[in-house]
Amino acid sequence: MGGAGAVRPGLEGLIRYFRDPPGSCHYLGMPGTVLIVEDDAIIRCELEETLAERGYRVYTAANGSEALTLLGRIPVPNVIVLDMMMPIMNGAQFLGKLRANPRFESISIVMMSAWIHPWTNRLAEAEEIEILMKPFALQKLVDSVARCCRREHPPRPTNTSEQPAA
Predict the structure, then answer these.
(1) pTM for this structure?
(2) Confidence label for 116 from pLDDT (cuts 50, 70 and 90)
């Protein structure tokens, strides 16, 4: 015991630890972390249950303000499922505050609303947001979230003054 075979699992675990830190869904073998922001409690619970059953780590908030507070206490989610029409802070207001924070710039958004306005489509195109028109089949949500979790985001530079090697 203790030969090269014993070192390999430890090395793989160490690589995995740094690539996907503890608490991240990929480290735990889960497909991703999702934050659902929806003011209707019944819809919020249904979406949470649907995604949790498929292995996602799910957090929920009833409005944009609550979601911003929650984002300070949870791992950065892969995807935010965002209702647009909510009290206190609606989806557009939330999205503006979210994108103002560099820590959250790479989070994918799945926007859902019963009322899609032309500015919603422009926003979705500019932000590469997926839109679900309410009511929608739960499988459409599952498919959208899965696509977003698989989407690759470019790594953020840690020091913009460094020049790439030639």
Answers:
(1) 0.71
(2) low
